[in-house]
Queue: 3 jobs
Job 1
Amino acid sequence: MSRVLHVYWNNSRIGEFCQDGAGLSFRYDDGYCFQCGALPLSRQLPLRKVTFDDTATRAFFANLLPEGDIRRQVARQLGISVDNIFALLEGIGGDCAGAVSILRPGDIPEHSGQYRPISSELLALELSTLSSHPFFAGEKGVRLSLAGAQYKLPIYVLHGEFFIPEGSRASSHILKTAIPHLEQTVINEAFCMNLAQRVGLSVPQAEIVDICGQQVYLVERYDRKRIASGEIERLHQEDFCQAHGIIPEMKYEQEGGPGFQDCFSLIEEWSDEPILDTLSLLNWALFNFLIGNADSHAKNLSFLYADRTIRLAPFYDLLSTAVYKRVNNKFAMKMGGQKDPRYLMATHVTRFAQATGIEVRTIKAQLSALCGRVEKEIEPLAKYYREANHRPMIVEAIIRVVEERLRKAHTLIA
């Protein structure tokens, strides 16, 4: 039996997402295909009057959903199969990453839902039960979805007050709780994101907030913009797995996901400013090396579709994983063929340059400049975090990792 959901780009319906048996398909509405200035939903779903098959459709829409234990719990809450992408998006697809809303026939975005105020006490309770009740799944009127394997909650924030978006209302921020069994990940991520901002990487505003005594990571959504009317406008995004047609289960390079060569080639082909975005991607790769982030896979990279252009999106999910000894700290994407940062040598930098099409001297110059900025900015930032958070041990651990990586970096650019 065939079932249909309508796909909206902000308030404009652009196509139909269909399920026929176990197969999925997508088709643009005729009117959207011929609309002046229209952009495709995905590199894998170009603007054509065709019905896209299961492979192309699944790669885009599956990547809108949470992963792992979170997805399994959402499926339990909704009473559906964890593998039923269509039913999952029917349940929680009202506010996805980017400009996409996936609605039942008859639902209209601009007339659907409201912002429901939530007290700090109730929000704290919801955050404490995210593992059993992610994204408010199953609650009447709430249809939120974010990709990834970490517990998080899309939220609307106005003047320091929190609201739950209902129906197709857009969230403005994301709340993330601490990762179980890893120490002080909220401080870790906030520190790394703010260090990235200080050294020149494009990142959204991130901070630590206290909700009834619980430290939570709050980050502004870069795929949202508050317009003059006060409403939140969605900006479409596409992560690099979607752009490559890779399902989320294969996001790591060792599982068949994109590596650095694939990512830089994608920038060259798909970005409207490939030179600038290539430099940004290079600095992202080098910064992740310096902070010891081994979870920098392709789903942590996205394109932002805004003002009729396609550009590399601001960076997110920056975390020093090297401070956790029980975490696998091999590179998510090999650098010049090397997976272990301890054994990275100048020859690997040369191979990295050959794979990415960037001159070795450019890579070394960028690494040298980035090292200088990190050395200048890390201590003032650490001083702020020590004073604001009772001298957290995780900050000292990050500094030790960065100091070690800086020493390694200087041998690579010598």
Note: Residues 2-177 form one domain.
Job 2
Amino acid sequence: MKRLIFSLVFLALAFPAHAEDITATVIAVRDGDTISVRLDGECLPKIFRIHGVRFYGCDTPEKGDKRPEIAALAREAKAFTEARLKPGQKVLLRDVRRDKYGGRLVADVDGLCGELIDAGLARPYTGKGKKPW
């Protein structure tokens, strides 16, 4: 519990509500609109360099959706993102902020939201109420 509290306090201090651009290395694609990255640079202790990053500006369907057509769309969105972001690839996280829960980072990642929306695999999302798929 103490480690969790320390981590959240550290994240709050390390990432202000609105930060500069950050260079990161892709570790994995979690789903269509979320990736895991290792932040570049030596200013952070190693334990704090790995983060989930949600794409700012779009929402893709959830892979655990019980409706087969929505789950299939979620898999397609993930495959789309995996085709563009490979493990080990460097990306620029622009307009970085924390999500409302203080855990994940939210950022523009190489303009992928626009591509996902144009492909019909995501909807625009501003953080204020999601439309159901």
Note: Residues 19 and 105 are 11 Å apart (CA to CA).
Job 3
Amino acid sequence: MKILIVGAGLSGAVMARQLAQAGHHITVLESRSHIAGNCHTERCPDTGVLVHVYGPHIFHTGDAGVWDYVTKFARFVPYRHQVRATAQGQVYTLPINLHTINQFFGKTFDPAQARAFIEDTQARREITDPQSFEEQALRMVGPALYEAFLAGYTEKQWGCSPADLPAAILKRLPMRFDYNDNYFAHPFQGMPEQGYTPMVAAILDHPGIDVHLNTPYTAQAAAKADHLIWTGPLDGYFDAKLGRLGYRTLDFDRFTVQGDYQGCAVMNYPDRDLPYTRITEHKHFAPWETHEASVLYRETPRACGVEDTPYYPIRLLNDKALLSEYEALAAAETGVTFLGRLGTYRYLDMDVTIREALDAAAGFTPA
């Protein structure tokens, strides 16, 4: 069977590989000049630093099957992601942990004391069923920590009040009553030694796969295939005829310095008086390498325009209502599979993206 896949990111690449191994003939169309989607990496020609071109991507998972899959296509090096925050004139550890609490309040609590202090003197205990991000934060950490670390950052990231965001966004972020500063808790964590793009290239390296870069999707190309797998924006498939789904995009202010600029991979800036949310220092994403110079990005979120790269689906009430309409249109399509972060309008970590592509390929039954 001839299958056309739109998009050479993780979803498209994994689907292409699995279906090619099942004997199908795969054509992949990618409108960009490179594969790997937003996890694309490349070497800076001036510094030699491996740069995460569309912002940092850290691979972490509890899915042993996904870990086994990616390690077949790249050598992964252990990597422990640690984040710091410059807030109110001081540098703190994130996620909020025992060190953060003691430093912020000027205390020397042990874990039990810190837990009791937050619950008894900080947390808004009258909030019994948090519905919004703000309510969840106030119930979990209280107003002081919320204002210092979460409120301003969230407003800048999402372009709206935290009171308008669902509580589920914050539930992904832990608060710890020990000194563990590992940002992720998954058992499998690491970085592909040579970057994500060579890994995706290895996934696509199969005689049954034909990849075309700088090639947008056309109806004529789809007409030549027996089945279409769409990993582009869901509303884009329908030419946004019902309206555009909302995304946040990122502006990257890239700069280079000699030496080490901030001493860590990610420094958050939650204070409202700064427009950017964080600075990423890319050489720290590959701590096994040594570079005299450094490449950094200041990240400033904003509303996503038609020509911008979509990063984060907003999924507020209006977006969810519009999404339901597009999902109904998608369900009525025949000969098309919608897949991935853009194709399903969800925020997906890389491991979940890969798992869903593997499962979709295993259950592939074209109309």
Note: The longest helix spans residues 143-158.
